[in-house]
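Possible regression after last week's pipeline update?

I re-ran a chain I had predicted before the update to compare outputs. Posting the input and the new output here so someone can diff against the archived version. Not blocking, just want to make sure nothing changed silently.
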Amino acid sequence: MGAPSVRQRRLGAELRALRDAKGATLEEAARAAGSGWDKTRLSRVERAQLGIKPAVMELLLDAYDVTDADKREVLISLARHGARRGWWQTYSDILSPAYAELIALEADAKSLRSYQTLLIPGLLQTAAYARTAIAAINLGSTPEQVNALVEVRQARQAVLSRPKPLEVWAIIHEAALRPKAADPVIMRDQCQRLLDLMALPHVSIQVLPFDAPLHPGIAGAFTLLGFPESADLDVVHVEHLANALYVEDAADVSVYGSAFDALRAHALSFDKSADLTARIKQEHS
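New output (post-update):
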């Protein structure tokens, strides 16, 4: 069996926490789950070794007296998505497990907070910018593989236009808007893309200027994926050249949340960020 996904681990941990809060034993909870369930099977779900169907999840949430609608929705969604194939699995031959997990988490999340130092966040990239960035990072990839990864990145952006769109707050270092060796046409169009996105009510973009004081972002870029507060399932994605790290411990996730708040304070206001982006766009013309 493969390693459990971030979603499976978070779901299992939350089920264990709910059962403990209720004061129920595994045997009692297994009876609530219905026919075919016993303490061993439920224990495997809590240890992220086994999936669970949405209908069974509903029975457990009822047994644990979970009435919060947002919390129920996100936990049932995690159970549902764990059993189905996502569109991204069509690209399983080129996607790393960590990248596929990021896409799955984006599909489930309510909010995404991202700090980027040298790159425009993937959900905000134009196709041309994405192609240039992907080709530079994915050493040894064929043109066909790069094209497929560009398709994936563009498809990911559907979360911004779904009925309940992902709420995105991006802090982008000024250096990402002024790459010295970039094609000026690509960067001009990318800046316009950011300006267009700034007009959306669920997208917030700030620029961290070169003259900002020292800040937590000097430790590197990160993305914090948020679920309804009552779900306690937030995770942090930290990307490296060859792999990615997921931070799941609540205390550690809180540190990243505090870091993001500090970065917001150091970044330009929304209006000043838009003005600077527009000026940089003209510089690329």
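Follow-up from reviewer: compared with the archived run. The chain has two domains: 6-83, 90-283. Marking as no regression found.
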